[in-house]
Amino acid sequence: MWDDDDRESEEEPLRANPVGFVRSALIFYGVMGCGALFWRMSTPGESILHPAANSEPAVGLAVAIGSGVLVGLLAVGLSEVLTRFTALGESLADALGEGLAGIRRADALLLALASGVAEEMFFRGALQPAVGLFWASIIFGACHFLPRRELALWSVYAVGMGWVFGGLYEWTGQLLAPISAHVIVNGINLPRLVRRAEERYPDETDPSE
Q1: How far apart are CA 27 and CA 34, in angstroms?
Q2: How far, in Å, CA of 178 to CA of 162, rounded?
Q3: pLDDT per residue as tens digits for the range 50-77
Q4: Sign (positive/negative) of CA torsion 21, 6, 198, 185?
Q5: What is the pTM of this model?
Q6: Residue 8 lies in a domain
Q7: Can you tell me the distance from the alpha carbon of 82 to that of 23, in angstroms, rounded to the nearest whole number?
Q8: What parts of the chain have a pLDDT lower than 50?
């Protein structure tokens, strides 16, 4: 039998230092973005903004960004359906919300921007031209793997999104297309997960909000 202390410890969020978490995440994404930029620049004639050397973008910048926004909104809709209508999706949202408990919504938006830009620079802008769309998507999913049953869907979803973002990069010829999609997904979902965590862990919320 579990006693009351065991049950209370199970309901505590996984992270207790939101300021340190946000700071560490921003440093991590900054290093990731800079590493991706230097990696791509090490190949003469290559630009991280486009899939191949000396290639002309297939579409204009406005169309690329618009396509990214549309793909991002569709991805958000899919994640909402999974959360509302599947037990695994709901468990995933709860688990991810635990990791965000206590951070401010403004910080969630900042993390959404940093992660969307840095991850797309690395996985699509630098890694994909080196290993191809398939392996870049698999590696992207693997980097989102955590050994918890409720997070298994996250890895599968990440592989799918990696393939979609990579295809968007190759179709438009513009890195800003998958960046736009990724930022939209995280920019909508992260604040919603923060709100979900606030409802589950009211003692962890920032009283200044």
Answers
A1: 11
A2: 9
A3: 987 656 788 899 999 999 999 999 999 9
A4: positive
A5: 0.85
A6: no
A7: 30
A8: 1-14, 16, 206-209
